[in-house]
Amino acid sequence: MPRLLNTRRLFLSAKNKCSFCNVLFLLLLATICVLLMLQVRLQLDSVARSQEIATSPPPARIFCIIICFAYRHQHVGIHIQRTWPKHCDHYIFVSDDVHHILEPAVFNNLQDKWQLLRAHLEYVYKYHFHQGDWFLYANDDNFVLVENLRYMLQSYSPEELIYIGCKLRSSNGVPFMYDKSGIVFSGAALKQFVLEALPNESLCSSKPKGDEATEELGKCLINVNVLAVDSRDDWQAHRFLPFETEIHLGGQLNKSLDLHKYFLDHTYYPVINMNLPVSLRSICYHLNQIECVYDLYYFTYQVRIFGGP
């Protein structure tokens, strides 16, 4: 009787099917394992990033102090207020009279620049020290790129006894900052100045100094171990510029002009070809015409370059 069913072939066929199923099962299992491992890795990376963010210090807070006077409130102060101070973490105007828009801190009966500077910094320390890590002391005819200042300050700690600006040198070699380019104090430096220098007449004179206010400031700060920092960038280009952009970008210093001569006679760093190299991350410079502040603000903060972010 012929065999109707080849059992050997059936057995081998079933065995082959089982082997194929096993391979599929193993591949599926391996895929699931890989996916689980990737998920675990992503979760670990996410936790690590969260911990890094949680432990990294918050960005430094910049408190801006802008000097203004009553006769300049309407045609200068209000225009400055509408532009770069908005990029400070906090700001305050200081003046000799009230104004309903600027709402300045008012200092009456003080005419001397040095006595005003002392009073301004003491006031800010007493009433606003908790609002900043760094304190920018600027004029109402300065234009400040606050983001570039914030970038530069990443290299320093507000606990360091330092101050920063356009660095000059007095006739006896004491470093000080040019008063028309903005001056930045670390929180520690401001505290040291107010608590250690101001009360001690032997360390810091309270007598009127006129136009030598920041030179006297330099003496006081060096007497309480506050250092004047080099504010130039890695290529020795200047970030705190003493004059208008048209002087530094395409123009030249002119020693026949009193302000230029004063700067050239006191500059801490050599001036080559009567000009200063300008940093691509410049921070502060002087405004020749206040109306230009809107142009500068527009081109700095609002213009978008095609192909850029």
Walkthrough of the structure:
The chain is an alpha/beta fold and 309 residues long. It has nine helices and eleven strands. The strands form three sheets. A seven-stranded mixed sheet has the order 3-2-1-4-9-6-10. A two-stranded antiparallel sheet has the order 5-11. The protein has a two-stranded antiparallel sheet with strand order 7-8. 29% of the residues are buried. The mean pLDDT is 89.
Secondary-structure topology with pairs:
Blueprint: H1 7-55, E1 62-67, H2 73-81, E2 90-95, E3 105-106, H3 113-128, E4 134-139, E5 142-144, H4 146-153, E6 162-165, E7 167-169, E8 175-177, E9 183-186, H5 187-197, H6 213-223, E10 227-229, H7 245-248, H8 258-266, E11 284-286, H9 292-302
Parallel strand pairs: 1-2, 1-4, 2-3, 6-10
Antiparallel strand pairs: 4-9, 5-11, 6-9, 7-8
Notable traits:
seven-stranded mixed β-sheet, 9 helices
Question: What can be said about this structure in brief?
Answer:
With 309 residues, the chain is α/β, with parallel strands linked by helices. Helix content is 41%, strand content 14%.
